[in-house]
Write a structure and sequence with these properties.
This protein is an all-alpha fold and 98 residues long. Helices cover 77% and strands 0% of the residues. Helix 1 (2-36) runs antiparallel to helix 2 (42-54).
């Protein structure tokens, strides 16, 4: 009986902590956007704040190695042998093909 109570308490505590963390993160984002919007007024400020607050963190924009491999494989369709090998090497290293 005590273990069930403990598990229930941990679950409820976890659910209550999650929104608090998200709210803190949103507040930090709001502070950063406000600081960047200094000097802007009216519609310019509204538009800037909308874009700033809806922007994803930069880490999300970076493509994972697996995603990069899938994209390069798709682009390499039809290439064979040394041609494909050279293309894949170039594509995966983000260098233009020679």
């Amino acid at each position: 009986m005590k273990i069930q109570s403990l598990v229930a308490a941990l679950l409820v505590g976890g659910m209550l902590a999650s929104p608090a963390f998200a709210q803190s993160s949103q507040q930090d984002k709001m502070k950063a956007c406000n600081a960047q919007a200094a000097g802007k007024k009216g519609d310019d400020r509204k538009a800037f704040m909308k874009d700033c607050l809806s922007a994803k963190p930069a880490a999300d924009k970076k493509m994972s190695q697996q995603d990069k491999m899938k994209a390069c494989n798709t682009q390499a369709t039809g290439k064979k042998g040394d041609d494909r090998k050279a293309f894949m090497k170039s594509c995966l290293s983000n260098q233009p093909a020679a």
